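Two quick folds needed for the group meeting slides. Do the first one here.
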Amino acid sequence: MNIANKDKFDSIIESSDLVSRDLSWLKFNERVLDQSKKESRSIFEKLKFLAITASNLDEFFMIRVGSLYNYLDYDKERVDYSGLREEPFKMKLMLECQQFHKRQQEHFLKNLLPNMSESGFILSNVKNLAPEEQDYIKSYFLKAVYPMLTPMVFDGYRTFPILMNKLLVFGVVTLAPGDKKENRKLSFVQIPANIPRFFEVEREDVVVYIPIEEVIRENIVSLFRNVNIESINLFRITRNGDFTLEESEDMDANFLEEVKRKLNERKTGRVVRIEIEEGYSKWMVNLLKERWNIQDDSIFKVERASMLDFTGLWQVVGNRRFKDKISQMPAPVPPISYPQEGTDDIFQVLKNRDILLHHPYNNIDPILDLIEKAADDPNVMAIKMTIYRLAKDSRITKALLRAAENGKHVSVLFEVKARFDEENNIREAKKLQKAGCFVIYGISNLKTHTKLLLIVRKDDNRVTRFVHLGSGNYNEDTARLYTDIGLLTTNEVLANDVSEFFNVITGHSMPSTYQNLITAPRDMRNQLIAFIEQEAENARNGFPSGIFIKVNSLEDSEIIYALYRASQSGVPVKLIIRGICCLRPGRKGLSENIEVLSIVGDFLEHSRIYHFHNNGHTRTYAGSADMMVRSFDKRLESLFRVEDNLLEKQLMNILAFNLKDNVNTYRMLEDGTYEPKFPKEGEEEFNVHKEFFDVKVEDVLKVQLV
């Protein structure tokens, strides 16, 4: 991109009232990379966060850049929030991606690689090993690696091979003895995904990690006998993984087949990025560029001293030898509303009170306990739930299977369109279906993202409905890493709402209204805008007002402009948005009263909380929905109102703690960039990811947001 074009594009971007979704996402990944640079973190934590940025960027190219190519390849029009059309926006986006990639590489080479040995491990190539270690690796290659490798030549007789998404590949340029250069051939050697990323050599005082590509590079001549190897080029491709699913009348057959077909397409989607080691064959790269129809700005160069694919660093981070060198989080504490967690019958407890869970500070056990007891309890008649993502060895699936075997009615909506979990969800759903559960595979062209559980229990001739509503998945693994909200209740108003919503999901029903539930795609956007406009009206009339919202992403333009109008009316607006934010805070005449904060740290902020002051008659909701077009128009979502005084105060306190944090917080500036929020002079550090382990009831009851 030349300077004149860059200045022109930047001017258009800066004049827009909205921030580009994709450019905002890149700023989020910058904040994750920043975690890898913090001096207070161990090198293992730094490697972990670097690996997360790499995984994030892979998904970004597969989905967001893949989506952009869907417009470019089929000549469809799209104007980004930045004001740029498809091609100029791609140029700007690729420039930003290249710069981010460069910062990743520089950080690894300058700050991480030189400091590994002091922590008990090093990265090395084969040549730097002792002779006996080299012999050991040679034996490993011949026995375990060599049989797995398949050189695939591309020439006039053989078709161009399908190279897999995100795998390391050697492109080997060869020439037969005596042949001219124009007769050279290109072969591909793909490194299978089931080979460990590093070969580990255990020494007394250090673990030596040899990248698998170095093991293969050292021995690759054994795959190309009696020909001249002109160049060996290591690269990795990312393919378009963005696809949409069409509606299907026959949900049980056609729909699942459509999902499976699209999953196969993801494996062969158009190439959107090439990462490649420097010193590559220009002849090979020109051939690949022509073959895959990509430009230079989609080619990301990696220094030979660095490494391709930082996601492989998880192998180092996960080594049990270094477990003691990785800081451990405190054990979960009992919920404020359930201090005797685990000591009483959960069914009896919920008949008397509601429980608000705040993960990972409170563990997920009360939910698992409820489902597992329900599976075996002879008084439980039915279990209904929605499932978006499950843990690998899910206790929930086992409990539901047991419930079905015990003759209970079990209805489960498995969202088979949950991105990158499609195959696992199809497999688990079929398992339940075979056991006699009523399984729904999704609702036509909508994703079911809402998190709901309903248990129907008859006791002493009285039927009680036990309900769980949450912001996070029913996943034991992520519940230890993600901050989420969950409400356990027998409240009849919410139970009626949830029962009605399940009738929508499993049958053909369109309830006229819900009392304490706001749902999408029908009401959510309009209801939230109505709440925002009420705050604006209160401010104009001189009444107290305030909007406090915590979500993962804010992208919906109708909501954004409603917040702008509230700001112009004098409403103080505090937004805690972890990732994408397309709203510009602090713009004169538009959003002076809006502050946007982002918290990125040890836990992934995933909870959604909406609080409106409403002139003292507070409205507080939590649930599964972000403020995005897809959440309002393309997903089944729900937000539930929390009215119990202690539980509502607890949600307000979560917002208050987030606003007080000065360790993990970044403040968004008008231009879409972010700056860290440091403790003020004389102010103590307040780390929200530690403080929630020590919350007191008396402090919660005192909380004030306005």
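Then this one, please, same format:
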Amino acid sequence: MVVHSTSERVLAGLDPEQRSAVTAPAGPVCILAGAGTGKTRAVTSRIAHRALTGEISPRHVLAVTFTARAAAEMRSRLTALGVPGVQARTFHAAALRQVRYFAPRLLDGRAMPELLDSKVRLVTLAAGKVGLRADRAGARDLAGEIEWAKSSLVEPGEYVVAAAKALRDTPYEPAKVADVFAAYEKLKRSGGVIDFEDMLRAAVWGIEEHPDVAEQVRAQYRHFVVDEYQDVNPLQQRLLEAWLGGRDDLTVVGDASQTIYSFTGATSAYLVDFPRRHRGATVVRLVRDYRSTPQVVGLANAVISQARGTEARLRLELVGQRPAGPEPDLRIFTDEPAEAAAVAARCRALVDAGTPAREIAVLFRTNAQSEAYEKALTEAEVPYQVQGAERFFERAEVRQAMVALRAATRSIPGETPLPVAVVEALGAVGWAPDSPPAGGAARERWEALAALVQLAEEYAATPPVLPIGPAASVERPVTLADFTDELARRAAAQHAPTVEGVTLASLHSAKGLEWDAVFLVGLSEGTLPTTYAKTPEQVEEERRLLYVGITRAREWLWLSYASARSPGGRARRPCRFLPQLDRSGGTERAGAGGVRRTAERRRTQIVSCRICGATLLAGPDRKVGRCATCPSDIDEELHERLREWRRRVAGGQRVPAYVVFTDATLVALAERRPSRPQDLTAIAGIGPRKLGLYGEAVLALVAGAAVDEICPEKTFEISS
């Protein structure tokens, strides 16, 4: 009776879908869990319910996650539910524990070899052995390719074909990468060390090739749970199958719409194919979103509803469960410095209004974008922390570049235009202003140094007033020495330690996290989606990145992009994935006879906030002519007269009041106080028809006329 009562408490408060997941029978279970739908609660409750009802023993459960933080949270929740003792670990931690335990048996009495913390040093040596000179960024990219290959169960001799089939953007010629891969494996063996992929392979080998090991492991672990199953790679799947040994007590949890790590070898194929691979599997869909407001959920659904490809087959339409909140704030700025300054100002306002800085995040596509926001937040005196990456001025390539820039002040003539001087100086560290190199780390390094060139262009375009002589202050062109001093000042300002601050993070680093307020910035074509997304599959992964970013927000969401990188720069288009930002109107229709015709391009008037200058995209904001967060200068007395006039007109026509004018239009009229017909038509929602019907009356009311003069309390009808 006590056990029954305890298990019922586990079920208390679960929604119907969560309860279905928790009480599903033993065997293969696939929980498709959308963002914010309580998947951790569901899966821990499933383990607890089965344990408390006596169906399973906690010590026979292995729950696998992808981060140590997620594993710790799972253990904590299970303990709180009265089920301690469940093994919740990452794939690597579980494999390491098993390999260490069985090493004497597998290695003829020898201990497990030393585990490499990083591949970079050995990869650099391997590259040298095959005649390839790789800097640190190049070595990191080579290490990434080796990790992808080993995670994908690809051997050195198979790499060239496999990389071509997977459309890998290799950092060097594929055959040369294969040579480095082979040399790395030899160096590793001769040094008596293993890497993380070797450890997973050793765990697989120990089970597949040693029946006694397999028997002991499978006697220990009989029930398996895998979180974030869309991120499993072939090597991890092989280990999971070795653990299972043909058994089927497996629960997997995942969301195909959050598949964003395919470049590492992760694939959602195992999640997508789960019902086919496991006949009779129970499939449960969790769609009730408890994290975000319905407004945020609606935007997320709109973005992912356009998804195509394999992952879209498991697309979930979320249903918001929280009370209504503010609409997502969509803004366009003239350039990136203006965008960063506006974001910092809004962060400052949120913090001043009581939002903890730790509950605010600024998310971007690449780490190189962080510098502008680090600077803007510093100037706004808003503390911040960089998640998953070093601060811009702490990065090794940036520190190296600053040394090169300082050294170049002694060799480059002072009259050299600053951008030219910076490009010339960066040549000493191997940077060139041409196309960025292949390979993620090398490209990231290139973009970080390109950000310094952009800073130089901006700094040269707005030179500060510099003192010359004891009393005079005049403007003069800035020099390379001035710029290096400015960089040193920024670096010093941004090194100040902070206990709590606004989170700056890439979209990849933000996975699994959430905040009250989220700023998604830099949403322009070429950045998101990145120019490096060439195939339809890569473009769809960029869409999913935006979806992940949107679903990080609980309450307040800001989306923005700059129409140019720097003042006066080349115009850019907004991110194609945002329906609200798509102004092309270039959808296709099928005409007569099945001929497809392109619809006429729709012209959209750009409306800017008359207070702060930001481009307005939300309908109510465009009507009023200002951002919802900017101060109102409404004429309250005029607003009341307009409301009374509308009431009488609507009553006479026997129509709802909004048919005459919406509330937003009345606010716009009372704020803008138009004096001419063209002023009226400048307000969104007032076209020629309403101008003809109501224009004269509205202008008279704005000029001070009483409602009784314009519209007596009697029936008001529109002539047919």
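Slide caption for protein two: The longest strand covers residues 553-562.
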